[in-house]
Amino acid sequence: MSTLRGWQERALTQLRVWNGDGPPNPFLISAAPGAGKTRPSLVFARELLDAGLIRRVVVVCPTTPLTRQWAEAAARQGLHLQPDAEELTPPKDFHGVSVTYARAAASSARWEKQCTPGTLVIADEAHHLGDDLAWGAGFTRAFGATKRWLLLSGTPFRSDQSAIPGVRYEDCVAQPDVSYTYADAVQDGICRPVAFIPFDGTLSWQSGDDTIEASFSDVLTGREASRRYRTAISTELSDGLPRILRTAHERLTGLRGGDHRDAGGLVIASDGAHARRVAKVLHEITGRSPVVVLHDDQKSHDKLAAFTTSKDPWIVAVNMVSEGVDIPRLRVGVYASAAKTPLIFRQVVGRFVRTIPGRPHGEASWLYLPGEGALRAHASDVETELRHVLRPPGDDDGLDLFDEPPTRRETERTEEIAFVPVHAEVSPQMALFGGGPPPPKPPPAPVPVPQPVTAAAGSAVLDEPEPEMPAWQRRGLLRDKRKDLVGSLARMDGRSHREINAWVNRETGVTRVDDATIAQLEKSVDVLLRALERGSRRRRAS
Questions:
Q1: Region (Disordered): which ranges (predicted)?
Q2: 2 close to 465: Cβ distance less than 8 angstroms
Q3: 238-269 in b/e burial notation, b at 16+ Cβ within 10 A?
Q4: Of 409, 434, 459, which residue constitutes the final position of a domain?
Q5: Is the same domain home to 230 and 163?
């Protein structure tokens, strides 16, 4: 027996009514980061397979690491997916594949021919698609033959306002079939509430021959507003971003000195050079070098994985910590990115909402940020969503924490703007929730769901709910083992790799190694081991 959360059970009930049959009618689940969109999707896929309504599952997601995470999660449901697959058709003893949007778009012409009505497509973080963009167009072509599109997103909108394929819109607003908001998740104790602490004060910078001084409450032109924000996130002004970092570190130190000894902090920097400067400042503040992860670092994913389970206090990143990065111990953040779109802001907030089993319900996370208009507006949107959840409605509901609406909301340009930051003296403004919200109600009792006990028709995989090793990992290890044994045998008897592979394929009934089942790969290893043993005996005898 395993359990589903209440909202997951409700989603599964609606999915069973939908099941993708009939005219094309994609199904959108919009659920907060960390709420658990993966689980009901996989349970539903397993039910369709067992009922013979589909023949295979395809999970499409933004990054290669996510394809492996989906394969691991699927294995726990008795589903076996080949991650980062190059073909839409899975290996014979697999239920499907997990691939990236980029690969689906690049292979759309070939996959269009391989896709059948018996395919369930699960599109994770579907906001990465756009009707007029390459990924969206490629996705639509590759999977146009099936009516079953299950779309998942925590933020079902795009900063460029492009439509997401398969999403229904009313008055330009996405209409999910199942919605489970961040406020719902906080109320149920599934997500942490996040307290926002904006910083404002005196900022000055040189603009040509002039020196301009302003706070974030002052109205400026787009160019000077951008320079003001760049001044606020400059690491060179000790009473600017370094002060924000010091305040955030004090908060983190307090948490780590209490009952959350491995609590972690994350700084979202503007670019690689900025991240390194931020890391230097953090080293000066804490006496320890933080972990830094950048796109151009080949070890970045390994660093993320190590930080997730370590007790290191701080990590600095640019765009690496987004969807699919699950670090529940993150409790404190500093937003110092040049990107100020609502999509990116929500994704950053999503890094701090994941709960840890066994920890108290309602414990908060804290996000420190410059008091720039667009960021204040995004934080205000989150606060509005949570207002009636975390405090009773009353006469003060109209008094928003961020009661000065921004005069202009614009996306920060990525190119460097020529200016010289001169001075910064900022301090924290009123903190959302007054430094920590009251605890939400305890989460509802999970709904028991029995695991299926039969495999998909024609499948050779076992239905163990938690296999020791996912099938895709075992298959990869067997292929590597076969390759090594072929090399050893070639060195022993002088035959070429091609000759030995052809002989092994005949012995095991394999046409191509890429198409071999796990059972055939296991047999291949046995055949090669016996051949090596015979050769070794002959050598000893001679």
A1: 391-413
A2: yes
A3: ebbbbbbbbbbbebbeebbeeebeebbbbbbb
A4: 434
A5: no
